[in-house]
Amino acid sequence: MIYFGIFNQQVNYMTKLRELYNVAHIDAQNCNCLIENAQHDSAVVSQGYLAAGIIISAKFLFNPLTKIKLFNDGKKRLEDLIAQNPRAYELFYIRYSIQKNTPSFLGYNRNLNTDRMILVNFFENSNDQILKDHILFYLQNTDDLWPELTKS
């Protein structure tokens, strides 16, 4: 019974982080809420959402130097997490969605095709329906639904 309670808390926590991530781009308050919630957990995926929040927070700043510093800090954190955790598929989703929405002049879009292939493979081989549904929600709401995912 205790294990179920801990598992249920973790699922609820991840659901909250995912929901916050979905709205972090809207305004600074939502973005800060994502950062505040993610920074209190050392789990790899939580740290991925923290890195994403840092990247997104640059959007709401005015000083170009501060914007670039925050963007690069978040990017480094996310890249380091992916390098250290190559089987944490949610990190590839986070990076894909960040790169898909990053202005091209920043040059942070080189992993789009690779991440897409990794995520298609994840969809074909994983039983994690909760994460699949979260990724599909993003893809459907950004008009970026891949043909490989509409087969099932």
Annotation keywords:
single chain, 152 residues, disordered N terminus, globular, 0% strand, 7 helices, mainly alpha
**Apparent shape:** globular
Gyration radius, rounded: 15 Å
Structural class: mainly alpha
Look at the structure and give the mean pLDDT: 90
Q: In terms of per-residue confidence, which ranges show pLDDT below 50 for 5 or more consecutive residues?
A: 1-8
- How many separate helices? 7
Distance from first to last alpha carbon: 35 Å
What does this structure look like?
The protein has helices at 2-23, 28-38, 44-57, 64-84, 89-100, 112-125, 129-141. By secondary structure, it is an all-alpha fold. It starts with a helix and ends in an 11-residue tail after the last helix.
Could you give a short description of this structure?
The protein is mainly alpha-helical. The chain has seven helices and no strands.
Task: Summarize the topology.
Elements (H helix, E strand, L loop, with lengths): L1 H22 L4 H11 L5 H14 L6 H21 L4 H12 L11 H14 L3 H13 L11
